[in-house]
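Title: Request for sanity check on DUF3137 domain-containing protein prediction

Description:
We are preparing a figure and want to confirm that the structure record we downloaded matches what your pipeline produces today. Could someone re-run it with the sequence below and paste the raw structure tokens into this thread? We only need the token string, no images.
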Amino acid sequence: MPSRPTLAAALDTSALTGPIDKAALRVYRETLPSDLRPGLKATVVPAAILFVASIFLISFWSLVIGVNDLGTSANDHLMRGLIGFIYLAMPILAVVLIVRGLWVRRGTRQFRLDRFARDNRLLYTPSSVPLLFPGMIFTAGHSALGRDIMRQSTGSTVIGNYQYTVGSGKNQSRHRWGFASIQLGTSLPHIVLDATGNNSLFGGSNLPEGFRRDQRLELEGDFSKHFTLYCPRGYESDALYLFTPDIMARFIDHAAELDVEIIDDRLYLYSKRDLSTLDPATWEWLVTTLDALGEKVDRWQRWRDSRLGDVAVVEGDSGMPRIVRPPRGVAATGRRLTKRTAWVSAVLMVAFLLLGLYSMLEDVVSWLLR
């Protein structure tokens, strides 16, 4: 595999913060897809509804409650404060919607990122349908969308932002991630490094998937203080071969706040904040991290899965001995980690349902016995 091209050496971030050619911006704006440049109707109508609703609510409360008739008690003051808050909040929200809509329509963010990509020999896509990567964030949820995707022309490095939705109706929630991915020289076992530095207050992982505890592997030194490593059962020695002390140190020094996933022939870095951004400092840190990791993990291309065959010495065509190594690839047992079954959540859900059903039956029986 040829040496990996570095990104940090000649990184030019001037397009992210420098002055904009307004004529060029107008031309570029017309090339943006409709979802990134919504019509004025999509901005004005919600704002108008908020304005009308605020007037209607104030009029309604004045007639029904009688705001002018409120006394001086604590409850009356609370009611006045509530009405005043809504009276002010709804028009302010309407103005925010209008300003935000007009700003989005300008396409300034996309224009800057497009020029940044050109300056650094990258390919820029403002928005993308769900990305066909096997990483865990790309297979979670539904209604997924990639934003501000940067690629090297070879596809070896991809950086962007990704969002997806879980649940439905009133119970749905949207999850946003920043990601960066580099191509490896060969397929490797499925390995996840769950960073401890970005866990929740109570130590829970922020990853969209959980993995069985019997796949955890404790590595030497301080590595386990920064990452929880998961590898398929039976691949512990392979993980130790891949994560030598110098590689562990490189991950601790450069990626301790990022979750890492190795799957098939790519390495992914995940963050809960945008990684494709207008912030020059973020880009400088990110490309330095990618270069630092890429320099070390390039040696991983020498790894072979012994389950696919043994190393053998055979006689070559010229009569000289020749070493035959197993083919590139990973046996079926090492291609994917085993996910943790969410039985605890299922038990709690069933318990809540039974409790709710019991309460309903109790109310019905009480009503019948009146």
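Thanks, this matches our download. The mean pLDDT is 83.
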